[in-house]
Amino acid sequence: MISVDGQILLFIQEHIRNAVGDVFFGGITHLGDAGIFWIVLTIVLLCFKQTRRAGIFSASALLGSLIVNNIILKNLVGRVRPYEVVAGLQCIVAPAVDASFPSGHTGASFASAVSMYKHLPKKYAVLLIILAALIAFSRLYVGIHYPTDVLGGLVTGIGIGLLVNIIGNKILEIRKV
Fold first, then answer.
1. Radius of gyration, CA atoms only, the chain
2. One digit per residue, pLDDT tens: the chain, 177 residues?
3. Which of 34, 67, 78, 97 has the fewest CB atoms nearer than 10 Å to its CB?
């Protein structure tokens, strides 16, 4: 699997990367650094009564993603970053200090976006899903994650976002009684 993963990254590097994409995806990938975009958005949403529920769900999903992806899975799997083992692959962002699997940027992005999807107007919710997908692709583009790392982050992120909605809605139903 590492061979196929590496070949996909080399294909992106050789056939898709370009000067404009380097700037665009370099910027997009940094929106996910330490979950900063999602954390700031969550704080803003928490400040207003009409968006507070979306903010609470997002905060819960971000915390869940941090625990599952960054604390448990990265340490359990301990996968080496692709730029360290794929011959010829050049990472175009600063090297990461943690393990590669799963992509924390992707996990946090999808956990937050999915958790907020039903609590925001659809035009904003769809834009957040698109941004999460761009952040996920950017991790491949810049060469810092394998495709299976991003897929792992996508699966855990969506799962956490959905789980937060299920649990959160149950709690809200109980509180109405």
1. 17
2. 568 999 999 999 999 999 999 999 999 999 999 999 999 999 999 999 999 999 999 999 999 999 999 999 999 999 999 999 999 999 999 999 999 999 999 999 999 999 999 999 999 999 999 999 999 999 999 999 999 999 999 999 999 999 999 999 999 888 775
3. 97
Structure tokens at 177: 């009684």
User: What is the enclosing helix (H) or strand (E) of 149?
Assistant: helix 147-176
Give backbone dihedrals phi and psi of 29, rounded to 5 degrees, phi first. -65, -35
d(CA 48, CA 143): 38
Note whether 160 and 68 are within 8 A (CB): yes
Strand, helix or coil for residue 146? coil
